[in-house]
Design goal:
By secondary structure, the protein is mainly alpha-helical. 52% of the residues lie in helices and 9% in strands. Among the domains are: 1-127 and 162-182, Methane Monooxygenase Hydroxylase, Chain G, domain 1 (Up-down Bundle); 253-357, Alpha-Beta Plaits. It is built from 14 helices and eight strands. This is Unconventional myosin-Ia.
């Protein structure tokens, strides 16, 4: 469940928002199809008829409660669900599968099929801690014990049923998701020399803290150096959703930035925009890039941002900027040195005239 939620936020932050930005900016774009796993998340976490909700309902229901009634209820609710199957649903579909025991159900997760054995689900989900034990621990003189059992405080005793393990985990995952959604996703990599993303101000300063969504690839099962198993890596790339991400990135634009920030960084590359541009930011960006003569297919002008397709184009821009900065620094140095030499010469000339006048007068 937690992996599904992490995959969902990965999809929303890196795939869905990527494509939605092109639509918002009015960029010509052919959408890339990708699997949205919200249907699986809803299967597990739906507050009315999700698997966790049904498990909590069985734990709280009076009468004889066991895993069989829980599994029967799931089979009735999800008999036609495309991502759920059990022995009963397979029999209804006339599917012969000896790998699925009768006490199990299977969920078709984004990363593949996972079989769950319901034995012990009810007992583990109750997660009950007797109130008298909590009160005894809280009454102990040991400070650490009292801090570990705050619910044993007689003044805070609640007659409500304690939350189940499933509801606690669901609340914990919801808190994690809220925290991640408040951040900006970033890819962590080692930038090559001259990579504009490693330069201050290249991508703009994020308005929010960043969040790294890790996607780690295990090259082999034995954790051995210099050993690469193609089948294992291919399966991980597919199951982590990286194929869709790569397709979106390759079909899209590697770099995008607001016109004002882009013009402020690269305006010294054109004599028409340097040192000041009197017009609008978009017009200035268009004038600047037209003078640099980049291919038309490398650029796209959105409503508020400039899009650059290839990193090579961006590296070329950054290289030209570094050369131009060096030229401007040389110009500043040359101008300052000329001013300093002229000022020193004028002082020396005035001093020489004054000395000559006094010497002639004295003579």
């Amino acid at each position: 469940y937690c992996n599904e939620k992490l995959q969902q936020i990965f999809i929303l932050m890196t795939l869905k928002e990527e494509q939605e930005e092109y639509v918002r900016e009015g960029i010509q774009w052919a959408p890339v199809e990708f699997f949205d796993n919200s249907i699986i998340c809803n299967l597990i976490e739906n507050s009315k008829c999700g698997i966790l909700a049904m498990l909590d309902e069985e734990c709280l229901r009076p009468g004889v409660v066991n895993e069989d009634t829980f599994l029967t209820k799931l089979n009735q609710l999800f008999a036609t669900h495309q991502h759920y199957e059990s022995k009963e649903t397979q029999n209804a579909r006339h599917v012969m599968d000896a790998s699925l025991p009768s006490q199990c159900f299977r969920i078709h997760h984004y990363a593949g099929k996972v079989t769950y054995n319901v034995t012990g689900f009810i007992e583990k989900n109750n997660d009950l801690l007797f109130r008298d034990l909590s009160q005894a621990m809280w009454a102990a003189r040991h400070t650490l014990l009292r801090s570990l059992f705050p619910e044993g405080d007689p003044q805070k005793v609640s007659l409500k049923l304690p939350p189940t393990a499933g509801s606690q985990f669901k609340a914990s995952v919801a808190t994690l998701m809220k925290n991640l959604y408040s951040k900006n996703p970033n890819y962590i990599r080692y930038p090559p020399q001259g990579d504009p993303q490693s330069q201050p101000g290249a991508g703009g300063t994020p308005a929010q803290p960043t969040a790294v969504l890790p996607r780690c690839i295990k090259p082999n099962e034995t954790k051995t150096a210099m050993l690469f198993t193609p089948e294992l890596v291919l399966a991980q790339v597919r199951y982590l959703g990286l194929m869709e991400n790569v397709r979106v990135r390759r079909a899209g634009y590697a770099f995008r930035q607001l016109y004002a920030s882009f013009l402020e960084r690269y305006k010294m590359l054109s004599a028409r925009t340097w040192p000041r541009w009197a017009g609008g930011d978009r017009e200035g960006t268009e004038v600047l890039l037209a003078e640099l003569a980049f291919p038309a297919e490398e650029l796209a002008f959105g409503h508020t941002k400039i899009f650059i397709r290839s990193p090579c184009t961006l590296f070329d821009l950054e290289r030209r900027r570094q050369e131009r900065v060096a030229q401007l620094a040389t110009l500043i140095q040359k101008t300052f040195r000329g001013w300093r030499c002229r000022t020193q010469y004028q002082l020396m000339r005035k001093s020489q005239i004054l000395i000559s006048a006094w010497f002639r007068g004295h003579r």
